[in-house]
Design brief:
D-Maltodextrin-Binding Protein, domain 2, alpha/beta, globular, 2 domains, five-stranded mixed beta sheet
Length: 362
C-alpha cells in the first residue's frame, strides 16, 4: 500500500523525531588528578557521552597555569568549559572575580580521618582532649587544617590550643611514620591513601571518621560539599542545553557507581583511567591497587541525590572563611576571597540541571 504524500511527510517527520541523534557538541573538561577521573572515564566506558552527543576533550589545568588554584580563570577565559575539583574552588573563585557554579555534587564528605597515636588513645577520647597536643594536619589553607580547627572549636577549644606539625609530614608517609614512632606527633588528620597506609603501621587509631556522609554529619553537624562538577556562570547562561546534557551523563554514571562494586566499575571504566605505560608484568597488581582505591572512596560519594544542599553550601562558606590563611600564594588567594565580601552561598551552585535530570532520567 502506498502512502499519500502528506501522510508520508508526517511519517518521516515522526520517525526523525523518534530516532533523532543529539547534535554533536564538544566539551572541554578538566578533572582533578586521580579519583577525579573516575566519573568521566566510567561514563566513556559506559557510552553515556556518546548517547548525549558529547565529544569529550580532557584538559590539564597545569598546562595553562603554574598554580592549579587559579583554575576558574580558565573557565572564564574559555580555555576549558567545565572542571571536576573541590567545591572550595568555586567559593574562592567567586571571591577573586573568577566565578564558577557547581552543578553536580560527586562527594558529600571530605574523606578525612582524624586519628590519635596509639600511645595516647587512652588519654585522647574527643577533640576536647586536643589541648597541648601536636597535630599533623598540613598547611593553613588545607581541608584537613580548617576542618580540624572547626572540630576543635566545636569542642570548646581555640585554634591556638594545639601545635600544628611541620606541613611536609602530612604528605610523606615515611616522615610521618618516623615522627609518630619518635612521639613527635600526637594526632594525624589525613585522607586516602595516607589513612590506609598509616593504619597499616598500627601506630594510630581513628577518632573522627569523615569518610562518609553520616560520619561527616556526626563530626561537623552537616555534610561537606567536596568534589563537584562546576562551570562558569557565563557558560551556563549561554549553553544551558550543553550543561543539561553533561549533567545527564554524570547522573547516569553516578547511579551506576552507587549500584555496583569496585570490581564491576573497573570492568566498565575507560582505558584513560589507567596509566598507559604500565608494564604488562605489573598490570595485575596495578589494576588491584586502582580497584582498591575506588573501593575506598565509594562510601564517601553522594548516593541518590546529587544536588548541592543549600545548608551545606552555607556551612562550607562559613567554615572556609573562618580560617587563618597562611602567607603562601594559595593562602593569600583564599584570604582575598574571604575578605572580598563578594561571596554568598547561593551564588556557588545551580541545582536546576541535576533536578531536571533526576526527574526525567528513570
Amino acid at each position: 500500500m502506498r502512502l499519500r504524500p502528506a501522510l508520508l511527510v508526517a511519517f518521516l517527520a515522526l520517525s526523525a523525531a523518534l530516532f533523532a541523534v543529539p547534535d554533536r557538541i564538544k566539551i572541554r573538561l578538566a578533572p582533578m588528578p586521580g579519583i577525579g577521573h573516575l566519573v568521566p572515564e566510567l561514563a566513556r566506558g559506559l557510552g553515556y557521552f556518546e548517547a548525549e552527543g558529547i565529544e569529550l576533550e580532557l584538559v590539564n589545568v597545569m598546562n595553562y597555569r603554574d598554580e592549579d588554584f587559579f583554575s576558574t580563570e580558565l573557565l572564564n577565559d574559555g580555555t576549558m568549559d567545565a572542571e571536576i575539583c573541590w567545591y572550595q574552588r568555586v567559593v574562592f573563585g567567586i571571591g577573586n572575580g573568577q566565578p564558577a557554579q557547581a552543578v553536580f555534587l560527586i562527594e558529600d564528605s571530605p574523606h578525612l580521618t582524624i586519628s590519635v597515636a596509639n600511645r595516647l588513645r587512652d588519654q585522647i577520647k574527643t577533640a576536647a582532649d586536643f589541648k597541648g597536643r601536636t597535630i599533623a594536619d598540613s598547611a593553613g589553607f588545607s581541608t584537613r587544617r580548617y576542618l580540624t580547627d572547626f572540630i576543635i572549636e566545636r569542642a570548646g577549644l581555640t585554634r591556638s590550643s594545639y601545635t600544628p606539625a611541620a606541613a611536609e609530614l602530612s604528605a610523606k608517609l615515611p616522615l610521618l611514620t618516623k615522627a609518630l614512632e619518635a612521639n613527635q606527633v600526637d594526632l594525624v588528620a589525613c585522607m586516602e591513601p595516607m589513612t590506609t597506609n598509616l593504619l597499616a603501621t598500627k601506630l594510630i587509631t581513628p577518632l573522627y571518621d569523615l569518610s562518609t556522609a553520616d560520619g561527616t554529619r556526626r563530626a561537623l553537624g552537616e555534610v561537606w560539599p567536596a568534589r563537584c562538577l562546576y562551570l562558569a556562570p557565563s557558560y551556563i547562561k549561554a549553553h544551558p542545553d550543553r550543561v543539561q546534557r553533561l549533567v545527564n551523563v554524570f547522573t547516569r554514571t553516578m547511579r551506576f557507581i552507587n549500584t555496583h562494586t569496585a570490581d564491576e566499575i573497573v570492568a566498565k571504566i575507560g582505558p584513560g583511567y589507567f596509566a598507559p605505560d604500565m608494564n604488562n608484568d605489573l598490570w595485575a597488581d596495578y589494576k588491584k591497587s586502582k580497584t582498591d582505591e575506588i573501593a575506598k572512596v565509594l562510601p564517601g560519594l553522594t548516593n541518590g541525590e546529587y544536588s548541592i544542599p543549600p545548608s551545606a553550601a552555607k556551612f562550607a562558606c562559613d567554615v572556609l572563611f573562618h580560617t587563618d590563611f597562611d602567607d603562601s600564594p594559595e593562602g593569600k588567594y583564599r584570604r582575598t576571597a574571604a575578605q572580598s565580601g563578594k561571596v554568598q552561598a547561593e551564588m556557588t551552585y545551580d541545582n536546576r540541571f541535576v533536578e531536571q535530570a533526576m526527574k526525567e532520567i528513570k
